[in-house]
Amino acid sequence: MADNTPTFIGSAFDQICFVVEDLDTAIEHWRTVSGVERWSKAYDLARHQVDKEYWGEPEDFQFSCAYGFAGDTLIELAEHDGGRSIYRDWLDEHGTGPHHVGFRVKDLAEFEAAEAHYASKGLQKAMAGWFRADAGNCKWSYWDTRAAIGCYTELYYVDGVALEALEGFRAGTTDDFIPGAPHERPTPKGA
């Protein structure tokens, strides 16, 4: 049997995400237990995204995230804020914990090729969205790989200002991981 796995997917691993109930509590754990000091919070992260879908249907899910680096690995903490999402599903089924691994591909063409490859392998897209802006994009999708590896797999790409911010945060030259995203909760949690 021929191996037709695009090699760019496997070389792009760079992220692990944990779904949490509260970003501040999770950040404090990572700081005090694992020594990951620098974090960038981004509230209402899905509010201005387009092409949002949940299991193939349009959905207006909402979430907030915090980002930190352990070496070159991006740690994402995701907090469900509303709507139907696989974050909420995970919390209901498993509680807090590891949710997905991420592969960052270089551009939209690789992203589309990776999605086509995953679909050709019979994987189902569970959730997706797109931060689309003239200055930079981040397109992402989660694929249901739970039966094989116990969690979801994310494909994503970033470009423009978004990529500059990611690389600047990794290098320690900026504290702003998601340009323009609120770093404080705009409304009290649960309000």
Task: Please provide a written account of the structure.
The radius of gyration is 16 Å and the shape is globular. Strand 5 and strand 6 form a beta hairpin. It has about 190 residues and is α+β, with helices and mostly antiparallel strands. The chain has one domain: 2,3-Dihydroxybiphenyl 1,2-Dioxygenase, domain 1 (Roll), CATH 3.10.180.10. The termini are far apart. It contains 6 helices and 10 strands; from the N terminus they run H-E-H-E-E-E-E-E-H-E-H-E-E-H-E-H. Strands 2-5-6-1-7-10-9-8-3-4 form a 10-stranded mixed β-sheet, sandwiched between helices. This is Glyoxalase/Bleomycin resistance protein/Dioxygenase superfamily protein. Keywords: Dioxygenase, Oxidoreductase. Pfam families: Glyoxalase_4. InterPro entries: Glyas_Bleomycin-R_OHBP_Dase, VOC_core. One of its GO terms (molecular function) is dioxygenase activity.
